[in-house]
Here is the input.
Amino acid sequence: MAKPQTKAIGEQKPRRLTEKQERYCREYVKSGNQREAYRASYNAKKMSPEAIDTESWKLMQDPRIAQRISGLQEQITDKVVLSREWIIQTLIDNAKDAREQGDFGPSNKALELLGKTDEMGLFIDKSQNLNVNVDLGDILRQRMSAAKTIDAAGS
Here is the structure.
């Protein structure tokens, strides 16, 4: 005969998140902003920004909230990784298929796109802004020094 389960004294059943708390978690994951998430989830029209910050801070201290946010973020990360892996694998397959059929245009395009991925980093799109710090004074000094060396060697 099965023995009935008993709870230890003081042990409570874990509480589920309320609808508002669940919405807060989802809104926070979307925006990354506690204040915006709180406003979207609770009636905060008459609350000061400081009061909203305090209440959203309290929510973030709840381990259930933190755990739910972490879980939602992991789901998003998994989807992004799967999508990225799928795209890369599809480009590889397309490049192989096109090459096997002797259709080098699509094959080359697929290879070009693969080369532009962060994993490869082989090509830089001209539309991307490059942040290059160059000391023009150093370049001019180097060129002038080289020119002097050439002049001295030619004399």
About this structure: The chain has a mean pLDDT of 80. The chain is about 65% helix and 0% strand. The radius of gyration is 30 Å. Residues 63-100 form the longest helix (38 residues).
